[in-house]
Structure formats: structure tokens, C-alpha cells
Amino acid sequence: xxxxxxxxxxxxxxxxxxxxxxxxxxxxxxxxxxxxxxxxxxxxxxxxxxxxxxxxxxxxxxxxxxxxxxxxxxxxxxxxxxxxxxxxxxxxxxxxxxxxxxxxxxxxxxxxxxxxxxxxxxxxxxxxxxxxxxxx
Length: 136
Ligand code: CMX
What we know:
- The chain is of the alpha+beta class.
- Helix content is 20%, strand content 40%.
- It has a single domain (3-132), classed as 2,3-Dihydroxybiphenyl 1,2-Dioxygenase, domain 1, CATH 3.10.180.
- β2 and β3 form a beta hairpin.
- Carboxymethyldethia coenzyme *A is lined by residues 10, 37, 40, 42, 44, 57, 65-66, 68-69, 72-73, 78-79, 102, 109-110, 117, 119-120, 125, 127.
């Protein structure tokens, strides 16, 4: 799998506005984009540090995976996203190596990226996202 860097770290929060007091007010990062991803039922806010982004995730529906995550585990790191030059090829390779996939093929997400998730039960409890700009 040809991964280049950690594209972003997703952090589940109850309120992006409240969380900004830490990420902007204390860490001094600047929020450069806020975007709703309707099919994931989340609002996202992005901060950049080097090549990596922090993605704050706030549920906009009680059925959102992020709402379920916070109800069960509390606020905190929700997933790690690795940049790959070919999301679908990386998903296929993971599946061939026995990893349980959440997404068999990539889908569109925030910032126009294609993403696909590996199940946390196959990746030592860490929800793992593969993302990139490839077209399907
Ligand atoms: N990280 C690690 N483990 C997680 C997890 C996460 N983010 N979310 C759920 N789990 C664990 C649960 O704790 C549970 O473990 P136990 O069985 O040991 O209790 C197990 O996975 C099953 O969890 P669940 O609450 O029953 O939830 P579901 O099976 O309904 O869904 C998951 C879990 C990961 C398959 C689902 O959340 C999913 O498909 N996630 C991918 C999509 C997503 O997270 N979207 C939001 C972000 C979108 C974006 O970044 O744009």
C-alpha cells in the first residue's frame, strides 16, 4: 500500500464551537473550513498543521456514527486517515490481506476527497480511513 502521510486525525466533539476554544484559542491553529457531510450526518471543521489536518466532527443527527461514538465512548480521537494515491486499490489490497472493510469502494467526503474505511475490529481498535484524490 502506497501511503504518503497522515492526511488527518478525526476527533469527535459535542460542539465544534466549544472545541475551537482549545484548538484555536490554546493551540493557535486556524480553522480554514467548515463543511457538512450530509451522508455521514456530520459537520466538520478543519485545521492544518504541517501536512496533516485535524478534522473536528460534530454529529448533526442522532443516528450519525459520531453521535453513537460519543454516546458510547465519549469525545476523543475517532479515526486516523492515511493519504494514498489510489483509495480503491488500497481498499482491495487490505481486503486481500484479510482486513474487514466498511467500504468496499471509495465514496466522496469533505474537501472533495475520496475515502474508504477499514473496520476498527481489523485494525487494533483504530477506525482507519484511506483517502486520496483518485477517481473511481
Ligand atoms: N473507533 C474505534 N472503535 C469504534 C469506533 C471508532 N470510531 N466506532 C465504533 N467502534 C467500535 C465500538 O466501540 C464497538 O466495539 P465493541 O463491540 O467492542 O463494543 C464496535 O466498534 C461496533 O460499534 P457500534 O457502536 O455497534 O457501531 P456500529 O457497528 O454501528 O458502527 C462503525 C461502527 C465503525 C462500523 C461505524 O461507525 C462506521 O461505519 N464508521 C465509518 C463512517 C464514519 O465513522 N463516519 C463519520 C466520519 C465521516 C468523515 O470523516 O467525514
